[in-house]
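HUMAN: Spend a minute on the protein record below and explain its fold to me.
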Amino acid sequence: MPSARPDDGRPSSPVTHRSPRTYGSSDYGASDHPVALKILVAGGFGVGKTTLVSAVSQSRPLRTEAGLTAPSRSVDDTTGVRTKSTTTVVMDFGRIDIREGLALYLFGTPGQDRFRFMWDELAIGALGGVILADTRRFAECFSAVDFFESRGIPFIVGVNCFDDSPRHPADEVRTALDLAPDVHVELFDARSRADVRRLLATLVDHARVHWSSETRRR
């Protein structure tokens, strides 16, 4: 297991996340009006973001994938995912109904550092985020953790259990990523609709507690 994430020396973005104030209900979807919540699915290159969105979306998922070229392979770290032939260049989008009156709009971020400038735009109005981690390449999600923490956006970590990846208990993952005690860590399979639904339900509950607490402090 790697040590806690390093400080890469890069300053945090000056963009301040605006909380989803319209989502401040203590029980999402309990009103007479349907509620749609925006969720970010983030992480490094090849950790399973597109797979997650595709596995759970009830509408045809929107993908913006392009083929990996020889020049891009010299820039992108394909360790552990050498058979990967495409990559997301803008975003993935999907929709899922968690329960009656409550829908989640899923926005998958591009994984490469050169597309990281798009994350701030995708994060506007987001209730929270799921950061995907691959135990073969933990360093790929360090910058995603820093992104959410620096903007005050609640998040959980989903450890995508690839067939050939080593398994580590959630507590070891928490230590390796230097996460706060209240950040949930769950092991799951991004190909499993049931696993992804459970992960998203955990995020919604976690974000509800976070934003309710923020409202009381104001």
In short: Strands lie at 35-43, 65-67, 86-88, 92-99, 102-108, 128-133, 155-160, 185-188. The two ends are 39 Å apart (CA to CA). Residues 64 and 88 are 5 Å apart (CA to CA). The chain has a mean pLDDT of 79.
